[in-house]
Batch of 4 targets.
Target 1
Amino acid sequence: MGLFAMKSGADRAGGTGALAVFCLGFLLLAGCSALPDKPHRTVLYDFGPGPLAVSAPPAVGTAALPPITLADLDTAASRLEGTGLNYRLGYADANELRPYAGSRWTQPPLQLFRQRLRDGLTPSRTVLGTLEAANLSREGRSTDVLRISLDEFSHYFESPTASVGLVRVRATLVRGSPAGERVLGQRVFTVRQAAPTNDAAGGVKALTAASDEAVAQMVAWVNQAR
C-alpha cells in the first residue's frame, strides 16, 4: 500500500512537472508572438555610379574651353537641404510635400546634383572649386563662376497611376574681373521624366533621369556663353 502511494505521488509529481513545462512553453511562444517586428531597414539612394567609360580627351586642334568655377552650395539656405525622398500628389494637393517613409538620399539632392553637374562639365573643361579659384585670383587670373540653386526636386504624381520626376534648377553664370562681377546670363531649367513605377524606387529613377537631362541642357548653355 505504501509503495502504491509513493508511485501515485511520483506520477502526480511528474504530471504536474510536465504540465508546468508545457504551460511555460506556451507562455514563451505567446510572448514571442507579441514581440514587435524588427524595424524596417532604411533604403538609401543616390544617382548611381554615373558614366563608367573614361571620357575621351579633346581632339587635337580643338580649342579647349577655359576653366570654370562651380560655386560652393549654400545648403543651409535651401529648403531642400535634407535627405528625404519626397513626392507630391498633384491631383490632390500639389502644395503638400510628402516624404517616403523608409527611403532617403545618401546626401541632400542639391549636393548630388552638383556632383552630376561637375561630371558633366569635366569632359570639356577644367572645373575648379571656390578655393582653387581664389588661388587663381591672387595670381591675377579669374574664371567664370556657375552658381546653382535647386528649386524643385520631387516625385510628382499627375494622377494615381501616372508620375514623373520633376526637377527645376536655377543657374547663374558670372564672369569675374578686377572691376567686379558681370552676370553673363541666368536661366531656369525645368525637366520632367516619366517614372517607370509609382513608388520610391521609380521616383529615384525618374529624378535621376531628369537631373541628367537638366545637366546636359545646362552644360550646353554654359559652353556657348561668351
Note: The chain has one domain: 43-50+64-223.
Target 2
Amino acid sequence: MGRIRQAIQVHGRDCWTLFDSGARNSYIVPEVAALVPTSKVDRPFRSRLGGSVKESKETAHLDALVEGHRISFHAMVIDDIGNDDDGTPIEILMGALAMQQWGIRLIPAEEKLDLTHYPEEFLEF
C-alpha cells in the first residue's frame, strides 16, 4: 500500500489530495462537494477512516485534472478526511478503485504518481 499527496484541479480549483492505494473508495469534503454535482443517498454509508467511523449521506461525481490528465470518478462526501503528515487538511482521498480505472500508480519511494498507464482511449469488449 502506498500514499502520495499532491493537488489536483476540480473546476479550476486546486484541491489537496491523498492518493491512497489502501482505501477502496474515494472521499471528498463538503467544500469540494460544493463544486460538483451531488446526490443524496437513501441510507448513509459508513466507512472506517483514520481510526474513526465516518458517515456519508451524499455522493458526488468529480471531473478533475491530475497532472494535466482528465479523470472522472465517484466519491462519498464526508465532513472531514483528516490532515496529512504535515498537518495540511486533505480535501480529496482518491482510493484504489478510481486509481485503477484511470491507470494511476503510486511510486512511494519518489513520492510521485505514475501516469504512464493512463488510458488515452477506452477499449471496450
Note: The mean pLDDT is 94.
Target 3
Amino acid sequence: MEAPYLVYRGGYYYLFVSFDYCCRGTSSTYRVMVGRSTSITGPYTHRNGVRLTSGGGTEVLATHGNIHGPGHAALWADSDAWVMAYHYYTSSGSRLGINLVGWSSGWPALY
C-alpha cells in the first residue's frame, strides 16, 4: 500500500491508496483503493467496515481493457464535478488518465 491521497467530502475523510505492484508496464497489478473515516486520524475502513490496515479497501480503479496497473491517484473538486487523475500503462508505455468521479451511496465511482 502506497501513494496516499486524502480528501474531505460530506462529513468523511477519504483515503485513496494504491495496492499491489507498480512500474512493471503491462504486468503492473497496481490498483486504486479507498477507505473512509469520520476522523482524519482514522481508522479508515472499506464499504463493509474492514480496516485498510487489515487488508480492507474498496476498489475504485483496476486493470481493465488496455489500461494496466492504474494508480497513484489524486482528486480535486472542480467547479461542477470531482476529478481523479492517475497513471497507467498500455503496450505503448505510461499514460495519464483523467476521469470524473461520482459519489454513489457515499463512495467514489468513476465515470
Note: Residues 68 and 89 are 5 Å apart (CA to CA).
Target 4
Amino acid sequence: MSLSERIQKDLVDAMRAKDELRLSVLRGMKAAIKHKEVEKIRTLDEVESIQILQTLVKQRKESIEQFSKGNRPELADKETKELAILETYLPASASNAEMNAAIDKAIAETGANSMKQMGAVVKAAKSALEGKSVDGKALSDLVRERLAKLA
C-alpha cells in the first residue's frame, strides 16, 4: 500500500472515529502532497511524498520551539500531538551510529579534508542514508564536527 493510499484509508477511519485532530493532520498531509502533485503535473513517488512529510515535521518542530519561547504551552501541546501523528507515517529515523557510518563513508569517497567540502560530504551521506528519515540539521552538525577535527 502506497503512502497516499494509507493516508486516504486512515483519513476515512479518522472520519468514522470522529477523531478531529487526526483528521485535521491527515487532511493537511493529503493537501500538501496533492499541492506538490499539481505543481509537478504528475503523481509523486514514495521518496517525494516522504520529503513532503519531513517538511511538515520540520515545520511542527519549529512551531513547537516558537510557541514554547512565546509562553504558549497550549499551542505547543497541539503541535506536539500533530508531530506525533505525522511521525507515524515516516520511515524509521537513522540512528547516530548509522549517520556516523554514512559520514565516514562519505568523507572517504569524497576525500574531504576541510570545511570547503562540507556540501559534498552531506550530499554523499544523505544518499548513503536513502530510505531512512534523516534530520538534515543534525547530519550537517555531525559533518561539521567531523570536518573540524580533520582540519
Note: The chain has a mean pLDDT of 89.
